[in-house]
């Protein structure tokens, strides 16, 4: 009878150690995953900030193309600077936020690919007679100022 009690105690002790080891491994895995996620977020932030800072310094002193929209009586302005480099970057500013895009012209609109920033993530420009007449930022359409 004594051996059965000893065996039960041994099984309980082994199970307890196994669970403790699994908990430690889980805790370490969560810490490592969180650290990696934080590093990636910070790295992306630094890279985007560098791109936006370069675009803003290039656009300084240059006149932007201006677009506007009304939203519940408020007039919201959107400004676009053409960087005119090999990748055809555009700097977009709206509500104090900036975004940088690359562009490719297709028929009657300009397709824009998000590179950095939080002003808008999806953008498109409408072209008529070789001139941009409207700009779409995250689905909101801004008309060209006359």
UniProtKB/TrEMBL annotation:
Top-level taxon in the UniProt lineage: Bacteria
Membrane-spanning parts: 20-39
Alphabetical UniProt keywords: Membrane, Transmembrane, Transmembrane helix
Name assigned to this protein: Uncharacterized protein
């Amino acid at each position: 009878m004594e051996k059965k009690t000893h065996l039960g105690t041994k099984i309980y002790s082994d199970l307890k150690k196994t669970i403790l080891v699994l908990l430690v491994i889980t805790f370490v895995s969560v810490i490592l995953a969180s650290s990696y996620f934080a590093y990636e977020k910070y790295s992306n932030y630094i890279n985007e900030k560098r791109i936006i800072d370069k675009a803003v310094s290039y656009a300084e002193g240059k006149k932007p193309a201006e677009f506007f929209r009304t939203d519940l009586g408020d007039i919201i302005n959107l400004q676009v600077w053409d960087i005119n480099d090999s990748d055809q970057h555009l700097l977009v500013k709206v509500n104090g936020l900036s975004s940088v895009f690359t562009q490719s012209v297709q028929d009657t609109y300009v397709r824009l690919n998000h590179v950095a920033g939080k002003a808008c993530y999806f953008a498109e420009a409408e072209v008529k007679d070789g001139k941009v007449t409207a700009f779409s930022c995250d689905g909101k359409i801004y008309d060209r100022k006359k």
